[in-house]
Specification:
single chain, 524 residues, alpha/beta, 12-stranded mixed beta sheet, 10-stranded mixed beta sheet, globular
């Protein structure tokens, strides 16, 4: 049977695979039927009931070793969280677990009451854990060796119950005091690899040396990023020089053989700065047109390649386009997601000479935006799947002349809801007849009225999913039932019965329409 040949399974309820988990369960499938599955991914499922139902069916799968719960932002009480944790910790052969499943307003960790002897690698993205809960986590996962999480600790009453010897690798975002951080590391006696990001903590090179010597004498690999604010905004460069010099000692240069770099924004109003070890060890990186850098490395060219970075945000706020230049020096050969604001500069192409890995590009425009530069970027991005454009207040003809053979998703919407550009009938016709429109499969767009929605679903032949906000939507913001939703009811009456239509629970002004591609082929 084909079901016995499946070793990896991905169930997603995102924009592109709407209601897939519900369809999966409604057709009588259960996870325990997939006896040889080794890896299970649950993506963008917002129902705690569905997630718990699926995971509870995995308890006795003898080959399931990897579980990924990705962007499943669930609102639930502590009882619901505990049930989820217990279901995960009950999977008998689970070794690797990645979960990113709680929104920022409800992201406190609750440890399982079930003990798992099998889990060795745990990634908890966007989930905060204090020292008390960390103790319970270690107790219910006695063989845990590698942990990636966020720890928030501001209370002196928090403590670890025991010294935990199994942890050898820790990737940590730390929000708390220096004393509590030192206390934590002193209880991890076999920790040999630490990747650390801090905010609200300031230690110079001498203080980091003392900290590592006292709390982590056994550490072999130490990589850090310290986000801080200048004490005196008018003396930024002087403060940077003092900080950089403190990392130029024998301990850092000869014993640890590590260099650091400090980046800051040259501004009379912004005091933010970051110092980090080289090579840069984190997945996300942001910089501005006026970013300045200083390093302890005598030859900074050696570390210009930011190989580990997958997501980059670049902001250009300069008004003088003639003198515009990029002061930051670095290359990002493995960037997947690129976010650019007010792109004017031809030098941007030198920072991104190769974009073979790029799958998502998001650009915030202005009136002087040069579409030819965008075309140059697209020509270098052979695997680009998603293109997002915002600040489309003054729509120009060049937008509809952009070409790319790989793009299948278009986002033409303001993410924060302000300054929205509602496309009218003529603009949507131009989009439908454009190269990008003809090949578009997922479209995110604001429209003037509901008839534009009908035109888009009818005339974009490859469209699978339409996510839209309608200017004349009269929804009152209180009732989610389609029986009281005038726009949703109207769309049900005027679109084919094969379309699934609903409001997004997290973004209720967004209407999501999943279009049956076969139906569209029949129409055309």
């Amino acid at each position: 049977m084909i079901i016995d040949r499946i070793i990896s399974l991905n169930l997603s309820d995102n924009d592109e695979t709407s209601h897939l988990p519900v369809f999966f369960l409604s057709h009588g499938y259960t996870l325990d039927q997939f006896k040889y599955v080794q890896s299970l991914s649950l993506n963008s499922i917002s129902s705690i009931g569905i997630i718990n139902k699926i995971i509870s069916q995995c308890r006795h799968l003898q080959h399931l070793t990897h579980l990924y719960i990705i962007k499943c932002y669930i609102y639930c009480d502590d009882k619901g969280k505990l049930l989820l944790m217990n279901n995960i910790w009950s999977i008998s052969k689970l070794i690797y677990c990645y979960f990113d499943c709680f929104p920022s307003s409800n992201n406190a960790f609750i440890a399982s009451t079930i003990i798992s002897q099998s889990i060795e690698y745990l990634v908890m993205k966007n989930i905060k854990c204090d020292l008390n809960n960390l103790s319970y986590l270690f107790q219910c996962t006695p063989n845990l060796r590698r942990l990636h999480t966020t720890i928030s600790c501001n209370s002196r009453q928090e403590e670890l119950k025991n010294i935990f010897s199994s942890i050898i690798s820790l990737k940590l975002i730390y929000l708390g005091s220096i004393d509590s951080m030192k206390y934590l590391f002193q209880n991890l006696k076999n920790l040999s690899s630490l990747t650390l990001e801090t905010s609200g903590i300031y230690l110079n090179g001498y203080e980091w040396e003392s900290f590592l010597t006292d709390a982590l004498p056994q550490i072999k690999r130490f990589r850090f990023k310290m986000n801080f604010n200048f004490k005196h905004i008018n003396n930024q460069e002087e403060e940077v020089d003092i900080l950089i010099n403190s990392f130029s000692t024998q301990y850092w240069i000869e014993i640890r053989q590590q260099y650091v770099q400090c980046d800051w924004i040259s501004s009379a109003t912004i005091s933010d700065a970051t110092i980090y070890t080289l090579p840069y060890a984190f997945e996300k990186f942001s910089y501005y047109d006026n970013t300045c850098s200083k390093s302890t490395c005598p030859n900074v060219v050696d570390f210009w390649s930011y190989d580990r970075v997958h997501t980059v945000k670049y902001v250009n706020n300069r008004l003088n386009l003639v003198k515009d230049s990029i002061s930051f020096r670095g290359e990002f050969p493995n960037v997947y997601h690129l976010n650019l604001t007010f792109l004017f500069n031809n030098n941007i192409l030198s920072v991104y000479p190769l974009l073979n890995q790029l799958t998502k590009l998001y650009i915030s425009l202005n009136d002087q935006f040069d579409y030819s530069q965008l075309q140059h970027l697209l020509d270098r991005s052979a695997h680009l799947y998603s293109l997002g454009l915002s600040k489309l207040t003054n729509l120009r003809r060049e937008l509809f002349q952009i070409r790319s053979t790989s793009i299948r998703r278009l986002e033409l919407i303001e993410k924060n809801g302000s300054d929205s550009r509602f496309f009218n009938d003529k603009e949507c016709i131009a989009l439908v007849n454009s190269s990008l429109g003809r090949q578009c499969e997922v479209l995110v767009i604001d429209v003037e009225n509901e008839t534009v929605i009908l035109d888009l679903t009818k005339n974009i032949v490859n469209l699978r999913t339409l996510i839209t906000r309608c200017k004349n939507d009269r929804w009152n913001g209180k009732e989610f039932s389609s029986g009281f939703d005038e726009l949703v009811l109207w769309l049900h009456d005027h679109l084919p019965s094969t379309c699934l239509i609903n409001r997004d629970i997290k973004h209720p002004y967004d209407i999501r329409i999943w279009v049956d591609c076969k139906q569209q082929q029949d129409v055309h």
